Amino acid sequence: MTYGNGMYYTNRDTEWGTGMTFSGDGNKAIAQNVKTINVMVNPEKNDWGKIWDMGRNEWSGKREFVRMTWNQSFKDGKALKIAMQLCEKGNTVAKETNYWAVNADDTPLNLTMNEWSMVTFTMDETGFALYIDGQPIKLEKEVKTGEAIDGGTFATLLDNPTMSFGGTVSDFQEGFQGWYSHVSMYDKVLSADEVAALYDAVPKKTYEDLVKAYTYGLCFEWDDLKQNYDTTPWMNGLNVGQWMTNVQAVGDTLLYYYANNQRLDERLSGSKDGRRRLEKQDGAPGVEFDGNGSIVTNLNAPKYWNQPDRLWANITVPFHGVAFANNSYFSQIGTIINLTDSFVVDGQRYMVSWSKTAHFDDSIERVQKKYLTTDGDTPEMTIEDVYPGSGLDTDAKMNAFRYVYAMYNHANRGATMAESKYVGYPMANVVQLDDVVYQAYKSADGINYIAIAAENLDTAFDMTKGTAQNVYMLTGNVARALESLGADAEEAFTEAGAPTGEAVTVDGVTTQEFTNGTLKIKEDGSYSFITLADLEEVAAVEAKITAAADIANIATLDDLKAKITEAEEAYEALSSDELREMVSNYATIATLNENVTKVEAVETAIGKLPEADTIVDEATAQAADPDVTAAEAAAAALGKYEKFVPSAQKLLDLRIAIRKYVKSDELVAAEELIDAIGVIPDDNTTYKSAPAVYAAKAAYD
Description:
single chain; alpha+beta; 7-stranded antiparallel sheet; elongated
């Protein structure tokens, strides 16, 4: 039979251990017929622990056992063994035979902490064999056929035994502490080839696989979905799909902490029927973790609640799809709804939650020493009632700040905590000005702000959906440039007003819109703040340029040049290059000037032509015709600007005068076609002349 393929089982009770046990009438056949035991294990505690234990536990008489135990650092480096043991009444060991696993060179063989190994054991009346990851393992001591235990053999041991994984039958030593997968038992002795094939068929589990199984294993009941999440009412009444989004957030957070060497998965409290459970944690969905401090070298805190070597942590989901962990010495605060991962500022570690901010007064090196070695002084922790939105008078108003704070921290998680960006810790309560409401936060990168227009605060947060609008983060160069607008943040926000959107970066220039103007920041940190008055000046210049380009309503070239000059002077009068760069249609001035130059060139060419009254015969007409033709072509090329040529009438008068004496090639050709028609006869053959008529008319036209 097979138990738990693709699933995980973990034992955390170190007081003799508890786990899967097969005994009694219901499972007697399973235990009695076992001849091959196979299990994937992932050890997490460097201490004695039984991977499995099988035998007869008869307190009124002798008890016989065979078990597999593991300890990473036993004397002489020994670690993994098969033990055969006979006990008298009680726990007195009458005889014990140990078979230690060794490598080919007889050095002790060991399992690797926090990694998966497949351990396979076969046995029958003649003896037993051990395999690791599908390969046969040498034993320090030779297994003799029919190895006796006080006159008994495996034959007597296999008669009506009890079988336990992760727990104990023999009541000696602790249960194994770690992860199990693909536990399987067979009623025959598998051959070496069959064991190798079994290993090849089992998916090799990674920690990511483990977390995926964990998150999918998180259970909830409809009562959980319907319970009153008073702090986070947007979590009430979700469907399964919406709920699984939050479950996935828990898994993502576990993987994030694991990537940063902070494993939280020691033991889950608040479980139901042996399953992990996502349930109410301080008014929000969450899970708790509780484990032995010697297992994990991370930021979980030892001696929690004055219990030696105890670790505790929880993960909560404050908003849909966003989860954070409460761990390390911060766990002494108790169950809280975190709005960030812990972060370091000025050598101190901070945690910001729903309704408080905590930090260690010690240096981070001292705190880490306390975490990892449990020696040194206990770090002193300061807890303050300042948090995102603190100082506002309603939950909805505070939630607008909490939401933006949490979403920024979640969105800016890097591959490691060192690569992540955090809003930082709140430096004080929210500041409320007449037009803008803001709060300052200090991070490792400087001071950041969350701000909103005062008129939008009441409606910013949706208590049903758990989302916010019209409230914005100001970070990095945007925050630095903003601060430069005044002697302090209050003066700067008074000058700028409230942000009206997210910052946008195009071609290396970041633009942040405010109610009182626009802040533009270049990559080198230089900036300019464009006020509303500045914007009005820019708009006025744009309007003058537009008027100059409206040639349909401009009568003369002098009028056009006057309007262009007016627009140019207004452009040059702007107070800064930044304002000039904001004039969107400035290129139109260059186009207008280019066309004015073309008009003036045509006018100059016409001025060089003779007057119309000097064309008195064919000779004077033919002499003037080429220059007049060139001037006509240049004027036609002006398009809509041709109307501005002052001497256009002179050009027309010249053409009329020339045509009195010189026929154009086109006119000559048309007359020749007309002459070719001749006299149209009055008989029925008139139609024969039609093509010639049509050709002559086309030439004339």
